Amino acid sequence: MRYAQVILPLPLFATFTYAVPDELDADIxxxxxxxxxxxxKKFYTGIVEAxxxxxxxxxxxxxxxxxxxxxxxxxxxQLKLWDWIAEYYLCSKGDVFKAxxxxxxxxxxxxxxxxxxxxxxPEGRKLKEKEAMVLMLLEKEKKLRLSILEERLGIKRGxxxxxxxxxxxxxxxxxxxxxxxxxxxxxxVRLSIPRDNTEAMHAVLDSVGRARQQEKALMAYLDxxxxxxxxxxxxxxxxxxLLEKSGVSGAVLNAMRDKGIFEFYKVSVNRFNMPVDTVxxxxxxSPLQTGALDAVRASWTDHNxxxxxxxxxxxxxxxxxxxxxxxxxxxxxxxxLVPEISLTTQLTDRLRAVFGNRLLVYHxxxxxxxRVDIWKKLLGSNEPCVVIGARSALFLPFARLGLxxxxxxxxxxxxxxxxxxxxxxxxxxxxxxGMHGCKTLLGSATPxxxxxxxxxxxxxxLVEIESRFEDSPLPDVEIxxxxxxxxxxxxxxxxxxxxxxxxxEALEQKRQVIMFQNRRGFAPVVVCKAxxxxxxxxxxxxxLVYHKPTDSLHCHYCGFxxxxxxxxxxxxxxxxxxxGYGTQRIEEEIAASFPEATTARMDxxxxxxxxxxxxxxxDFSDSKTDILVGTQMVSKGLDFGKVKVVGVLNADxxxxxxxxxxxxxxxxxxEQVAGRAGRRSEKGRVVIQTTNPSNPVLEYVxxxxxxxxxxxxxxxRRELNYPPFSKLIMVYxxxxxxxxxxxxxxxxxxALRDVFGARVLGPERPFVSRVATYYLQQIMLKIEVGAxxxxxxxxxxxxxESLARDPRIKTSLLYYDVDxx
Length: 821
Ligand code: ADP
Ligand code: ZN
Ligand code: ZN
Prior knowledge:
Elements: E1 2-7, E2 16-20, H1 22-25, E3 33-38, E4 42-52, E5 66-67, H2 78-88, H3 93-100, E6 112-115, H4 129-141, E7 143-145, H5 146-153, H6 158-168, E8 171-173, E9 184-191, H7 198-208, H8 212-225, E10 237-238, H9 239-246, H10 250-258, E11 262-269, H11 287-299, E12 305-310, H12 316-329, E13 333-337, H13 341-355, E14 359-362, H14 368-379, E15 386-389, E16 401-406, H15 425-436, E17 439-444, H16 449-456, E18 461-465, E19 476-481, H17 482-487, H18 497-508, E20 512-516, E21 525-528, E22 545-547, E23 552-554, E24 561-563, E25 576-579, H19 583-593, E26 599-602, H20 612-621, E27 627-630, E28 643-648, H21 652-655, H22 662-674, E29 685-690, H23 696-702, H24 706-720, E30 726-735, H25 738-756, E31 760-764, E32 770-771, E33 774-784, H26 789-803, H27 807-810, E34 813-818
Parallel strand pairs: 12-17, 12-18, 13-15, 13-16, 14-15, 16-17, 19-29, 20-27, 20-28, 26-27, 28-29
Antiparallel strand pairs: 1-2, 1-4, 3-4, 3-5, 6-7, 6-8, 9-10, 9-11, 21-25, 22-23, 23-24, 30-33, 30-34, 31-33, 32-33
Helix pairs in contact: 2-3, 2-15, 8-9, 11-12, 22-23, 25-26
The structure holds adenosine-5'-diphosphate and zinc ion (2 copies).
């Protein structure tokens, strides 16, 4: 008998061993999806990680209950990547499994199961007795937990049955309406005779006789199915295609079915079909771009990773497109990572025009259905294609990855902060490319300090483009001192006089304006004017934020919400007021200042639904709106031809992050948002409003001087021993009891200090020190570059184990954040 090590979607560090029943032995493989029992009541879908001939010890081993697919759902080297992430980011493989695989592929005992109302039993197939029982039960109860369903059915291997029913589409997982996997089916038509039987064909022709319509349908079918081309397989013919090609009505086909000429059947199709004959339309590159492209290729002869630093609007996207095209021509697949979904919208449109159906889009805003489809599509084919997606796309089952491109590589949203795995998508992508033996291109106008440092020191290749496509000049940047504006009463509310004038001029010239307001630090807060009371979240250490549309208060950390009080709960006065500017209030103010212009707003509130980004961006592209007001989302990568003026309403909130990356984040954000102005030929203008005009970062942005900014920043990092000169590991402890978590933090820090000495900083309460009812303590570990990370991590585990039985540690949760961003 063989034994399988199984990864379960749990945050546990152990591996779980199950016995492989003889009847499954022939089909099971590494990467297979299996159903197993865990504990007494729970059932999980797990992934086989290894198969061994020996039992791992002499404890009782449960058998695998069933194998859920005919073949593995993972491909080499996916499990290797999971291993690397778990090891490097100090989390369990179960955590990685949870993040990597769409939930439709991993039903758990907690999942709600329901009958699929649209399911039709294929012709000729009857319900089995047990299936009928399940459906009856679900008809009565509407939906049931998988575990309860099994209990009620009283069948030992109930879940295996359920999994099969899920796979055929009879049942579905009812997480929410939009996240459930349902294979799509199409109606198809085929001839009911064997292909090589000429007599049967004559009989068919006879039975069609003089019916012109039926003859048309038959001829169309023979053509579409390539019936006569014996060397090829009979092609699947959809009912729709047949109707279109022949021009006959559905009734004609029905009549032919009744005569026994045609058979109707259904096939489940993937939502994404990739016809091989897509026409590729590439823009020719400028000489500068061609030079950069050649330089990238040349640098790959002795580097695995190359950094392309090209100023905003230099046409990096076009260079990616050419590289991707070469990859596809070589029969390989390409992965293009982008930091956030707001960016994919425009990029998807641009790349769709070039690569047609060979482009697959994958991100978390998609329904689980769509994600499962893309997963299966990649699993079932080796065809060349390009996947564009946010960080989770790197978990897809690529067959032959030939290129990885990470766009806007500096962006901190590549880092997942919560929950585990707390991985950086850019860094994991480089590792993935290495496992496939392919090259990585990192692209940015403002590379991260770490990446540029690696490029300068020769670890990465480096290619730079210093001017924009067609030599459009970079925009003029003006820094406006808001204190002086207010003193001289030049401002109009939030808008300084220079910004008003610049915007007005642009609008008169029928150009467009972007007004940028950082999401951070401007949320509208509520204060009682009489006693100073402000509403706090009951679960977190943050103030609640006012939402005008619902007249209610929200916590952005845990989602808690409550009604806006009309009288102050502390003093009873009728003096509760809203202060500060939400983007909505800003939009109102701007609209009032420019009554002749149309404005639109892009922020979290206006983009909750999936198409909203697309609509806002398209309207602005088509000049249906004149002024776009927005947060981070408007700053990233977007390409609008007619934007002449960009206003940064309050740079202070961008420049004062409470961490060592403060300058980096500030410079990147301002340079990026400035880069939206004047992208085609005529010069743009950027107005940055601040109360601290002497901040040196502003001067680098004004001169668009990345190098000078970098030189200053790298020196500061060297002095303070921050990355890239050290490696950071944050250790967090959380507990619902503040005294316990404080004690646990102190205990852990002392134990760490015994080994790591001065490399340990803290413990301290983080900036937001209570989240979702848990109090937090944080400890920072600064490790020398070049120190052995496996050793460091082994020590961390040992320290934890030595303390694990202490009640303060035992009742707390502990986790790590490696390379925090
Ligand atoms: P980046 O990604 O470097 O900010 P983009 O790739 O968005 O720059 O290019 C900026 C603009 O210039 C886009 O509108 C793009 O269509 C245009 N452009 C860049 N390269 C070419 C080219 N070779 N042919 C035609 N248009 C180009
Ligand atoms: Zn009050
Ligand atoms: Zn909260």
